[in-house]
């Protein structure tokens, strides 16, 4: 969630300032870029060298960078640079200055310049925290759109026990993560994605399979995770790494198994059925390896359950997107499937197009919606195709019913 995010950490003068080192480490570990500003008072509690080493960036305390040259630190640029600003620990004094817009130090000037969401994690002794002026100031900050990460209760530096202890670094970082998640376009949406082939067993060593690599479904799952969705990925056997950040990953082998797990995981906001489910499976499974015959060998096949059709018949509010791989009469065939299976959209890829379909890292798709309007896309990487599919899903998720 924090990967690549630019975070401006402001440290003010509380004994809890040492915890800024732990916060910095957690943020850096998650791939965030961290720039730190400190008030002069905070540098009595933790050194700029410590925080500069951890953040890999020079720590800024004052407007003036170099007395000799007159070079100065630009609070406006910093305020614009940040995706998020975090004030931790925030003392009663700094909170009051933020409320009053008292820009007599570099930190408050930067705060007033910040265009990004600001998080304030207070830390102080219990009576200072409980005081009417602190409480009113926090309310004012909140009313102005700042996010307060409330302090915890416990033993304080003064030896007193009560509310005022800086929230734990993990809790503070979790707040930032949750906030970023809530800002994402598919936040809170549950999405089921199926991927890969099925393998229909003939005997203990043989099966009927297909050439699906699972790459398209996995790319969709990765993109949906990036957009904050809670993703369940059901996949047949593939050689791909399981994406990070899934709600759950379920490995299946056969059409029967995928039908069972899809039924168990049917309560979703959207389902994208990109798995290449076998339409037929051997009627009988031989417990023993079938011996070579003197002559030809015919395997009797029986129809599998069409999972997507079942979903279309049983869906309530789920948005259903199916896939169609066609070789001829592409649009017509795909439209037929869309209607027969009661889908909200179907993604058509045709084997006529070079670089589209199974095994490749690219795909060329047409998305056909309920209104039978079709959208053609260029040949792209499967990761880019996933972006197009999820952009489309976001538009149909807005439609009720
Ligand atoms: N599908 C499914 N269950 C099956 C077969 C297919 O859920 N037993 C789903 C696939 O995941 C895909 C869509 O149905 O999203 C289209 O699959 P396809 O096999 O192309 O369609 P069919 O209706 O089986 O038609 P045909 O094989 O004749 O092209």
What is the topology?
Layout: E1 6-11, H1 19-29, E2 33-38, H2 48-55, E3 64-66, E4 71-72, H3 75-81, E5 84-90, H4 92-100, H5 106-113, E6 118-122, H6 126-130, H7 132-143, E7 147-148, E8 152-155, E9 161-165, H8 169-182, E10 190-195, E11 200-201, E12 207-208, H9 215-226, E13 230-235, E14 248-251, H10 255-264, E15 270-273, E16 280-282, E17 301-303, H11 307-314, E18 319-326, H12 330-340, E19 345-350, E20 362-363, E21 365-369, E22 374-376, E23 380-381, H13 382-397
Parallel strand pairs: 1-2, 1-5, 5-6, 6-7, 10-13, 10-15, 13-14, 15-18, 18-19
Antiparallel strand pairs: 3-4, 8-9, 11-12, 16-17, 19-21, 20-23, 21-22
Helix pairs in contact: 1-2, 1-8, 3-5, 4-7, 9-13
The chain binds cytidine-5'-triphosphate.
Short description:
This protein is an alpha/beta fold. 33% of the residues lie in helices and 24% in strands.
Bound molecules: cytidine-5'-triphosphate
* Share of helix, binned: 25-40%
CATH level-four homologous superfamily name of the largest domain: CoaB-like
Q: In total, how many beta strands?
A: 23
Strand content is 15-25%
Number of helices: 13
Supply the helix-strand structural class: alpha/beta
CATH topology of the largest domain: Rossmann fold
Please tell me about this protein's structure.
The protein has 2 domains: 6-182, Rossmann fold (3-Layer(aba) Sandwich); 190-288 and 295-397, CoaB-like (Rossmann fold, 3-Layer(aba) Sandwich), CATH 3.40.50.10300. The strands form 7 sheets. An 8-stranded mixed β-sheet has the order 14-13-10-15-18-19-21-22, sandwiched between helices. Helix 3 crosses helix 5. The chain is elongated. 33% of the residues lie in helices and 24% in strands. The protein has helices at 19-29, 48-55, 75-81, 92-100, 106-113, 126-130, 132-143, 169-182, 215-226, 255-264, 307-314, 330-340, 382-397; strands spanning 6-11, 33-38, 64-66, 71-72, 84-90, 118-122, 147-148, 152-155, 161-165, 190-195, 200-201, 207-208, 230-235, 248-251, 270-273, 280-282, 301-303, 319-326, 345-350, 362-363, 365-369, 374-376, 380-381. It contains 13 helices and 23 strands. The protein is of the alpha/beta class. Strand 21 and strand 22 form a beta hairpin. The mean pLDDT is 94. Cytidine-5'-triphosphate (CTP) binds next to helix 11 and strand 18. Cytidine-5'-triphosphate binds next to helix 11 and strand 18.
